[in-house]
Design a protein that fits this description.
The chain has 404 residues and is of the alpha/beta class. The protein contains 16 helices and 15 strands.
Length: 404
């Protein structure tokens, strides 16, 4: 008896029981389901089922399905699939899979077109698309800090990986949205440790600049900070120069600044989700432990490593204690925490904005440049620039419907 492969496509208004009614008919004929996929967009159903059956009952199956589809008010279409075409499709299983995430305040048809054009140009195929963010209001003014995120599941190997990533970086910059491209492997699905820079990442300021303003040396310190963040001077050298300028500042100023830190958009939501889902979290900062500990207490970070300022008689001495936490040290600390927590380095994430974060971003399984300087964006694997820090959740595959 001849085996037949039939692709069944169902579309129409979705309601409870459609899938159940149709698969009940297939079950009655002992049909094997070789593949199945379903999507629902604004109550519009798109359901595909690939079945294997025998020629003796295939006609009866299609007849019963047609009657049931008419009863349910949906459209149904049957397409025979040649065994050779099926075997070729099965052979695609060995190909790499990628997750391409695009996000911003809003996403337009142009954004989707630019990304999908590049995917096609690289000879890759889109297997699925899903929206990770909640439904958007008609009037953007109703939700000024709205977020929109779409995730593509893509099969194949890019013809030129580097060129593809450069193109994504280019269009993201020109069109004001973010693109992430990650291999869809086991590590992406089981990240366990995430390490953050503090200044200009968790908080919207550089604390050393705030201290400098209170000490009356704001312009001098800010100029040094900017040169260091651009990678123009060594971080350790710049750190020593800036700390020396703070000599004589009263310790009470640190408490005042800590209590008024401008927290980056999305930090509270991000930390709530990470803690609820079992992530270990760390602050690895070239800033100061005093402020890192304040954030640890407020948001529940598991680790804080930063620099200690020397204080004598209630005033800063212009010196620091211990080794400087620079870029190299951040990467070392990430590895150490991963070892202590028995976490594979590929299961780690690092988020930062400055040149001294690059070693940490390169070491982690997933490095994310957050509202970063051009040099950091160009070097980091992923970049997030258009929304708050909770945008990291979408790079990890979280959906609003699961975490809100």
């Amino acid at each position: 008896m001849k085996t037949e492969l039939i692709l069944i496509n169902i579309s129409g208004y979705d309601r409870p029981g459609v899938t159940s009614s149709l698969t009940d008919i297939l079950a009655g004929y002992n049909a094997d389901i070789m593949d199945i996929g379903q999507a629902d967009i604004h109550h519009s159903l798109s359901l595909g089922i690939l079945i294997k059956t025998n020629s003796r009952v295939s006609g009866d199956i299609m007849k019963d399905l047609l009657f049931k589809a008419y009863e349910l008010g949906v459209k149904i279409r049957f397409t025979p699939i040649a065994p050779e075409a099926y075997e070729e499709w099965v052979g695609q299983q060995g190909k790499n899979r990628w997750i391409i995430t695009i996000l911003g305040r809003t996403l337009t048809a142009r954004h989707i077109a630019l990304v999908s054009d590049e995917i096609a140009r690289q000879g890759m195929n889109i297997d699925g698309i899903q929206r990770l963010t909640g439904r958007q209001p008609l009037n953007d003014d109703e939700q000024p800090r709205s977020k929109s995120c779409v995730e593509f599941s893509v099969r194949g190997n890019p013809a030129d990986d580097s060129a593809m990533r450069r193109r994504f970086m280019q269009i993201a910059s020109e069109e004001d949205f973010d693109i992430s491209m990650q291999e869809d492997n086991v590590y992406r699905r089981c990240r366990r440790l995430i390490c953050f820079d503090m200044d200009s990442t968790l908080i919207e300021t550089e604390v050393i600049d705030e201290l400098a303003v209170r000490a009356g040396v704001g312009d001098q310190v800010k100029a040094i900070t900017e040169r260091a963040m651009r990678g123009e001077i060594d971080f350790c050298e710049s750190f020593r120069e800036r700390v020396a300028l703070l000599k004589g500042l009263d310790e009470s100023v640190m408490r005042e600044i800590a209590e008024n830190l401008p927290i980056t958009e999305g930090v509270e939501r991000l930390m709530q989700v990470l803690k609820r889902t079992g992530y270990k979290t760390a602050i690895l900062s070239g800033g100061f432990t005093y402020f890192g500990n304040y954030l640890k207490q407020r948001f529940g970070f598991d680790y804080v490593y930063a620099n200690d300022l020397e204080i004598s008689d209630g005033k800063l001495t212009g010196r620091y204690l211990g080794d400087i936490v620079d870029g190299k040290r951040k990467a070392e600390l990430l590895r150490i925490i991963a070892q202590v927590e028995n976490i594979n380095i590929k299961q780690t994430i690092a988020v930062g904005d400055g040149a001294n974060d690059l070693p940490m971003l390169a070491t982690a399984g997933l490095g994310i440049a957050f509202h970063a300087k051009p040099k950091v964006k160009a070097t980091a694997g992923q970049s997030l620039s258009t929304i708050g820090l909770d945008g990291v959740l979408y790079f990890l595959g979280f959906k609003d419907s699961f975490i809100n």
